[in-house]
């Protein structure tokens, strides 16, 4: 047996953003479904019908697992979008870092990094006391 070693191209940013939108909708729908089956479970328990309560409990467990899976997929897709955006700006960010090393007026440079998707900026002094 031989294995096919052809590699798939990574998804584009537009594809990933589309996936995030679909998963956001899916998570919202799953949350509504969980609420619906939770309410049905509460009604079944309140009615005293043990068989209906057990069936509703199973349905609720399935809905919760589905919602957790969708939320996890959304988190993964969101992280992939953020990673791809940061990668796309890596050269620009490196240029800003280089400029920061040369210019001690760093506020504008830090703001430029935030505009390019940075979440934080850390300033450190080297052993020689320079930034």
- Into which percentage range does the β-strand content fall? under 5%
Distance between the termini: 58 Å
Average pLDDT across residues? 88
Number of strand segments: 0
How would you characterize this protein structure?
The chain has about 130 residues and is mostly helical. It folds into 2 domains: about 15-90; about 90-130, no CATH class. The protein has helices spanning about 15-45, 50-90, 90-100, 105-115.
SSE diagram, text form:
Blueprint: H1 13-47, H2 50-88, H3 90-102, H4 107-115
Summarize the structure.
The chain folds into 2 domains: 13-88; 89-131, no CATH class.
Key descriptive features of the protein:
mainly alpha, single chain, 73% helix
């Amino acid at each position: 047996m031989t294995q096919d070693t052809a590699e798939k191209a990574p998804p584009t940013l537009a594809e990933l953003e589309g996936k995030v939108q679909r998963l956001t909708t899916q998570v919202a729908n799953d949350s509504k479904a969980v609420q619906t089956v939770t309410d049905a479970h509460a009604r079944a328990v309140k009615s005293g019908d043990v068989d209906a309560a057990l069936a509703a409990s199973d349905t609720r467990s399935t809905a919760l697992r589905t919602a957790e899976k969708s939320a996890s997929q959304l988190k993964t897709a969101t992280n992939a979008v953020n990673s791809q955006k940061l990668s796309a700006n890596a050269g620009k960010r490196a240029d800003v870092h280089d400029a920061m090393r040369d210019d001690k007026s760093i506020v504008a440079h830090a703001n430029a990094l935030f505009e390019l998707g940075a979440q934080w900026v850390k300033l450190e002094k080297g052993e020689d006391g320079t930034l």
